[in-house]
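Lecture notes, part 5. Sequence design as translation. It can be helpful to think of inverse folding as translation between two languages: the language of shapes and the language of residues. The source text, in C-alpha cells, appears below.
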C-alpha cells in the first residue's frame, strides 16, 4: 500500500502508477495539467509565485462560484479533504505541481539554512506531507471495498487470459492438421465444387427471373408517378437482362419480351404526349404561366411587373443546370415546373434512343397544334364576350366609323383575344427554347457535334407564328375575300379544278356526337379497358387515383373538345372565325399588341439560330404594302363615296352644336370623322407617306365634290341640256376675274369695311348691270339654295380649320409607293412601342404625318378649301346686291310699273318693291342664322348706298314720269328705307328722296339749286351735304325727266316746245355746274 500511495509524494505529482492518476483522466479535475489555474479554483495567474503564497481569502474565493458549491455538496469528507490538500499545495508549494518539477532542487532548498534557502519552511513542508498522507488514508478507508473487488477482478482476468492461450494452442494444432489434410487430392470435392457453381448460376437466374417478374409493376408505377428517367432505366435494364444468352432458352419469358417491347413503344408515345402537353399548353400546370404572360403583356414593359407570380424567362434560363444530366426528385411533383419537366422528358427520350424521331414528330404536329390553340383561344374569348355586347356584323363591307362606346367594345374583344393568344404563343416559344437548350446541352455532353436535325429550327415555329398572325390581321382588316386568301394547309375536299367534292360535304364528324351520352361513355370505357390491358400505361387509367392527374385529364378533355370545336367553327380550312367585323380601323388595335409580342419574342429566340431577330417584323412590311394599303385605299374610297353619295350629305347636321359654332353639313362632319379615324389609325402604324397621300387625295376629291355641288346650286336652269351650263350672275362675278372681284376681295380682307371700296364696288356693279340686263334667271330664287350656300361656306371654313390641326411634319420619309425604299425601313416598327398604344389609348392628339414634300400638297388642299369658302362668301355678298339691282331695274321700268299716273291718291308702293323687301328680310335672316357677325356685316354693309346710287343714276329708266308717278317713287323709297333699317344699321335713302323731290319742284328749281350750291361753295367754301349734292349728269337727267311727259306727248307742238325748254334749262344748268 505504501508503494501504491507514496508515489505521489516522492515524484512530486499524482501522475505515477498510483490512483492519483484518476484525477488527471477526469476532465473536470486536472490539477497537474496546464489548466490548473482555471475558473474551477479561481486562482489568479499572478499568485503562482512560490515564495508569495496567496492569502486565505484568495484561496477561499476559489470555492465561491455556484458550480464549486454544488460540487462540494456532493463530495465526501475524504474527497473534500484531499481537495483542500491539493489547493494548499498549489498555494504554498506551486513548484510541486509543475510538469517540470525537480524534487532534488526543492530538497536542497529545504536543507539550505542560508538567507536564500528554505530551511525555515521545512516544518511546514512536513505538515503538508503529513496532511497529504492522512488524506490518502481516508480515501483508502472509504474506498477499500472497491479496491478489494478490483483485486479479485484482476485475478479473474488473468485466469481468462491463460484459458485463451490454451485454446489458441489447440486451434493452432488443428490448423496444422487441416493443412496436411488439404494437401491430399479428393475427386468428390471437385464434383461438389462444380455442383456448387451450377447451383449458384441457377440461384442467380432465379433471382433475375424474380427481378424480371416485378418489372411490369415497377414500370407501371414509375410511369404513373411520371418518374420517366427511372422508368426508362427499369425498362432498359430489363431488356438487357432478357438479351443474356442464358435466358434465351426460357420459353416462359417470351410473353415478357413481347410486353417489354410493346412497353418501349408505349413509353415513347407517353413521353411524346407529355412533351406535347407541356409544349402546347395542354397540361393544367402550364395555364398559370401563359395567363400571367397574357396579363403582363397588357401594358408593354421590358421587365415583368409581377415578379412574385411570374419568374422572368431569362432568369429561368440562368438557373437551369444544363451542364449535368437531369435528376429526378421523388419528393416533388415533376409537372409543377414545366421547364424542368420538358428537360426531364427530353432526357428520358434520349436514354430511350428515340429523340431524333420525336423531334421530327414535333415538327409535323406543330401546324395542327398551333391552329387548334388559335381556335381554342377564339372560342374562349367568344364565350367571354357575347355577340350582343360587341354588336353584330351587319355591315359586311366594314364601312362604318365606330363611336367611342363601340370602339371600346371592339377594343376589349380584340385586346382580350390578342393578349391571350400572344401569351400562349410566348409560353409555347419559351417551351421550345427550353427544349432547344436541353437538346443542345445533351449534344454537348455526349460530344455528338453540331447535329442540326436534333436541334431543329426556330424558323419553322416563327413561320407558323407569322402565318397565324397574318391570318388574324387579314381576318380583322380585310373586308373583301378576293384581296387575300390565307391557306396554311391544303384545302380538304378540293378537286383538281378548284371545286369541292360534293360527296365530302356530309362526312362524319366526331364533334357531332354527344361525348356525355351513355352509349359513348360505355364504348369509351370498353376501348380504354382494351388499350390498358394491351399496353398498360398508355392511357391515364392507372393515374386516376392522383388528384394532379385528374386535373391533367380534365385539361386534356377540355383541349380535346376545344380542338374539335375549333375545326367545326371555322368557315373554311385554314381560316378562323372573326369575333368582330373586319375593318381597316382594327389595325390600330391589332398592331400594338403584335409589336409588343414580337419585341418579347426577340428575347426568346436562341442566339446563333437560323432566325435573325431583326427580321421578325419584315412580314409586317409586306402586309402593310401589299394588303393593308390597297385595303385602306379601297375602304377610304368607299367611305368617302358613301359620304358623298348620301342624300343628306349636304343637309344641315342635326348635331352640329357638338362640333362647330355655326351649322355645318352633315357630310362635312362625316368626312372629317373619316379623316380623323384614319389619322388616328395611322398614328399606330409606321409612318408611310403613301398612306398619307391616300388621305390627301380624298380631301381633294371632297373639294372637287363640293365645288361641283356649288356649281350645281348656282347654275341656271336650262331647257337644252346639251348647251354649256351658265351660272347665276353673282357666281359669275365671284368666280370671274375683274375689277369688281378684286374690289370685293380687298373689302373682305380689310380690317374695317372701307367706304371708298364700297362706293367703288357699287359703281362697278351698276355699270356692269347697265351693260347687261339682269333676268330673273340670273338671280337665285330658292331660299334653300341661299341656306345651302351659307352652310357650304361655314362647312368649308370649319373643315379647313380642322384639317390644319392635322398638319404634322415627320422626319420619317418612308414611302412604299416609291420604287426604292430607305435602308432604315425595318427599324420603324421599334418606334411604336408606346404603352398608350399597347393599351388602346384612343385619347391624345390626332395628326397626319407628312414630309416636306407631302405637306405641299396638303397645304394646297387647305388653301383650296379656304379659297373656295371665299368664293362662296363672295357669291352670297353679290347675290343680294344682284337681287336688289334686278328688282329695282324691274321696278323702274315703265313696262312693268309706269310712272305716268292719274289724279288718284297713291297709297301703296310698287309690288316689286314689296317683293324686294320680303326677299331682303328673308335673305338677312338666313345669313344671320348661319354666318358669323363678321360675314353678316360684310354682306349687309353697302346695301343702302347701292339703292341710293341706283335710284339716282338710273332715274331716266322711269321716263316718262309725272308728279303722281314721282309720289309713288317717293313712297317706294320710304318703304325701302324703313325695311333697310332692320337690315343695315344707319341706313338713309335721303339722297334718293331729295333727288326726286327736286322733280316735284320743277326744272327751274333744279337750276336754282345748282346756282345756289355753286354760290355756296364759292362764297363760304362750305361743302354741300352728301344727301343734297348731285352731279351734272344726275341733274341733267332729272331735268330731262321733268320734260319726259311732254316729250312723250303725241302732239308735235307740245313735244317741240318741251324739247326747246329742256335745252334752255340744260344750257343754264351747264353754265352753273361747269363754270370755273
Amino acid at each position: 500500500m505504501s508503494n501504491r500511495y507514496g508515489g505521489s509524494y516522492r515524484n512530486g505529482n499524482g501522475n505515477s502508477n498510483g490512483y492519483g492518476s484518476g484525477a488527471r483522466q477526469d476532465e473536470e479535475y486536472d490539477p497537474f495539467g496546464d489548466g490548473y489555474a482555471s475558473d474551477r479554483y479561481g486562482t489568479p495567474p499572478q499568485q503562482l509565485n512560490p515564495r508569495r503564497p496567496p492569502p486565505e481569502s484568495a484561496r477561499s474565493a476559489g470555492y465561491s462560484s455556484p458550480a464549486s458549491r454544488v460540487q462540494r455538496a456532493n463530495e465526501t469528507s475524504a474527497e473534500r479533504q484531499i481537495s483542500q490538500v491539493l489547493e494548499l499545495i498549489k498555494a504554498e508549494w506551486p513548484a510541486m505541481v509543475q510538469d517540470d518539477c525537480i524534487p532534488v532542487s526543492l530538497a536542497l532548498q529545504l536543507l539550505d539554512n542560508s538567507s536564500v534557502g528554505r530551511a525555515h519552511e521545512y516544518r511546514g513542508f512536513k505538515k503538508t506531507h503529513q496532511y497529504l498522507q492522512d488524506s490518502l488514508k481516508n480515501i483508502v478507508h472509504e474506498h477499500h471495498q472497491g479496491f478489494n473487488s478490483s483485486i479479485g477482478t484482476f485475478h479473474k482476468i488473468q485466469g481468462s487470459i491463460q484459458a485463451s492461450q490454451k485454446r489458441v494452442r489447440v486451434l493452432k494444432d488443428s490448423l496444422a492438421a487441416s493443412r496436411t489434410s488439404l494437401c491430399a487430392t479428393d475427386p468428390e470435392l471437385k464434383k461438389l465444387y462444380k455442383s456448387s457453381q451450377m447451383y449458384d448460376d441457377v440461384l442467380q437466374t432465379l433471382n433475375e427471373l424474380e427481378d424480371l417478374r416485378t418489372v411490369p409493376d415497377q414500370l407501371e408505377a414509375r410511369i404513373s408517378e411520371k418518374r420517366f428517367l427511372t422508368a426508362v432505366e427499369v425498362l432498359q435494364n430489363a431488356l438487357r437482362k432478357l438479351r443474356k444468352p442464358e435466358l434465351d432458352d426460357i420459353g416462359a419469358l417470351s410473353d415478357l419480351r413481347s410486353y417489354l417491347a410493346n412497353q418501349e413503344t408505349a413509353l415513347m408515345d407517353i413521353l411524346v404526349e407529355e412533351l406535347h402537353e407541356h409544349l402546347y399548353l395542354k397540361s393544367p400546370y402550364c395555364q398559370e404561366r401563359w395567363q400571367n404572360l397574357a396579363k403582363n403583356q397588357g401594358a408593354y414593359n421590358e421587365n415583368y411587373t409581377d415578379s412574385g407570380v411570374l419568374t422572368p424567362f431569362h432568369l429561368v434560363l440562368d438557373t437551369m443546370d444544363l451542364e449535368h444530366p437531369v435528376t429526378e426528385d421523388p419528393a416533388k411533383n415533376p409537372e409543377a415546373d414545366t421547364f424542368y419537366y420538358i428537360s426531364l422528358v427530353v432526357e428520358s427520350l434520349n436514354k430511350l434512343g428515340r429523340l431524333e424521331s420525336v423531334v421530327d414528330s414535333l415538327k409535323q404536329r406543330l401546324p395542327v397544334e398551333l391552329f387548334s390553340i388559335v381556335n381554342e383561344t377564339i372560342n374562349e374569348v367568344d364565350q367571354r364576350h357575347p355577340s350582343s355586347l360587341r354588336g353584330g356584323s351587319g355591315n359586311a363591307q366594314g364601312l362604318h366609323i365606330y363611336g367611342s362606346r363601340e370602339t371600346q367594345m371592339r377594343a376589349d374583344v380584340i385586346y382580350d383575344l390578342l393578349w391571350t393568344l400572344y401569351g400562349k404563343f410566348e409560353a409555347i416559344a419559351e417551351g421550345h427554347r427550353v427544349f432547344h437548350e436541353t437538346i443542345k446541352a445533351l449534344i454537348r455532353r455526349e460530344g455528338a457535334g453540331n447535329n442540326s436535325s436534333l436541334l431543329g429550327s426556330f424558323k419553322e415555329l416563327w413561320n407558323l407564328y407569322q402565318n397565324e398572325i397574318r391570318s388574324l390581321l387579314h381576318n380583322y382588316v380585310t373586308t373583301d375575300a378576293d384581296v387575300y386568301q390565307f391557306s396554311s394547309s391544303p384545302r380538304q375536299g378540293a378537286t383538281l379544278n378548284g371545286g369541292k367534292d360534293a360527296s365530302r360535304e356530309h362526312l362524319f364528324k366526331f364533334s357531332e356526337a354527344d361525348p356525355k351520352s351513355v352509349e359513348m361513355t360505355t364504348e369509351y370505357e370498353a376501348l380504354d379497358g382494351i388499350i390498358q390491358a394491351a399496353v398498360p400505361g398508355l392511357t391515364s387509367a392507372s393515374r386516376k387515383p392522383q388528384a394532379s392527374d385528374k386535373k391533367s385529364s380534365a385539361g386534356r378533355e377540355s383541349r380535346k373538345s376545344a380542338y374539335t370545336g375549333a375545326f367545326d367553327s371555322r368557315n373554311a380550312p385554314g381560316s378562323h372565325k372573326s369575333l368582330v367585323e373586319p375593318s381597316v380601323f382594327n389595325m390600330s388595335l391589332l398592331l400594338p399588341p403584335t409589336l409588343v409580342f414580337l419585341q418579347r419574342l426577340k428575347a426568346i429566340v436562341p442566339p446563333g439560330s437560323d432566325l435573325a431577330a431583326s427580321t421578325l417584323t419584315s412580314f409586317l412590311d409586306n402586309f402593310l404594302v401589299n394588303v393593308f394599303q390597297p385595303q385602306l385605299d379601297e375602304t377610304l374610297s368607299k367611305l368617302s363615296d358613301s359620304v358623298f353619295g348620301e342624300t343628306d350629305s349636304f343637309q344641315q347636321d342635326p348635331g352640329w352644336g357638338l362640333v362647330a359654332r355655326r351649322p355645318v353639313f352633315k357630310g362635312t362632319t362625316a368626312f372629317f370623322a373619316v379623316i380623323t379615324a384614319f389619322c388616328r389609325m395611322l398614328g399606330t402604324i409606321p409612318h408611310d407617306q403613301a398612306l398619307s397621300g391616300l388621305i390627301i387625295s380624298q380631301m381633294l376629291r371632297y373639294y372637287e365634290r363640293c365645288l361641283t355641288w356649288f356649281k350645281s346650286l348656282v347654275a341656271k336652269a336650262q331647257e337644252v341640256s346639251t348647251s354649256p351650263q351658265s351660272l347665276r350672275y353673282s357666281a359669275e362675278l365671284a368666280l370671274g376675274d375683274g375689277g369688281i372681284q378684286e374690289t370685293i376681295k380687298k373689302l373682305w380682307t380689310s380690317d374695317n369695311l372701307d367706304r371708298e371700296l364700297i362706293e367703288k364696288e357699287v359703281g362697278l356693279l351698276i355699270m356692269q348691270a347697265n351693260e347687261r340686263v339682269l333676268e330673273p334667271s340670273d338671280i337665285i330664287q330658292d331660299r334653300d339654295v341661299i341656306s345651302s350656300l351659307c352652310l357650304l361656306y361655314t362647312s368649308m371654313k370649319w373643315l379647313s380649320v380642322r384639317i390644319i390641326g392635322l398638319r404634322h411634319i415627320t422626319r420619317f420619309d418612308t414611302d412604299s409607293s416609291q420604287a426604292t425604299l430607305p435602308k432604315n425601313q425595318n427599324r420603324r416598327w421599334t418606334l411604336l412601342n408606346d404603352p398608350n398604344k399597347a393599351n388602346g389609348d384612343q385619347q391624345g392628339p390626332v395628326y397626319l404625318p407628312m414630309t416636306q414634300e407631302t405637306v405641299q400638297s396638303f397645304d394646297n388642299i387647305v388653301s383650296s378649301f379656304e379659297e373656295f369658302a371665299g368664293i362662296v362668301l363672295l357669291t352670297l355678298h353679290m347675290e343680294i346686291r344682284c337681287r336688289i339691282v334686278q328688282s329695282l331695274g324691274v321696278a323702274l321700268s315703265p313696262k312693268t310699273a309706269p310712272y305716268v299716273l292719274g289724279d288718284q291718291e297713291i297709297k301703296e308702293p310698287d309690288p316689286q318693291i314689296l317683293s324686294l323687301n320680303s326677299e331682303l328680310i328673308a335673305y338677312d335672316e338666313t345669313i344671320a342664322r348661319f354666318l358669323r357677325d363678321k360675314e353678316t356685316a360684310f354682306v349687309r354693309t353697302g346695301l343702302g348706298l347701292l339703292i341710293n346710287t341706283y335710284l339716282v343714276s338710273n332715274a331716266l329708266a322711269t321716263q316718262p314720269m309725272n308728279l303722281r308717278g314721282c309720289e309713288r317713287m317717293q313712297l317706294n323709297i320710304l318703304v325701302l328705307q324703313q325695311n333697310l333699317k332692320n337690315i343695315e344699321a344707319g341706313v338713309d335713302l335721303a339722297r334718293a328722296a331729295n333727288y326726286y323731290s327736286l322733280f316735284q319742284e320743277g326744272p327751274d328749281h333744279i337750276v336754282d339749286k345748282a346756282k345756289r350750291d355753286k354760290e355756296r361753295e364759292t362764297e363760304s367754301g362750305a361743302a354741300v351735304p352728301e344727301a343734297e349734292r348731285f352731279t351734272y349728269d344726275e341733274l341733267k337727267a332729272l331735268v330731262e325727266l321733268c320734260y319726259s311727259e311732254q316729250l312723250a306727248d303725241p302732239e308735235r307742238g307740245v313735244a317741240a316746245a318741251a324739247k326747246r325748254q329742256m335745252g334752255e334749262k340744260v344750257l343754264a344748268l351747264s353754265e352753273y355746274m361747269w363754270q370755273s
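The translated text above is only one of many valid answers, since several sequences can fold into similar shapes. Strands lie at 807-809, 848-850.
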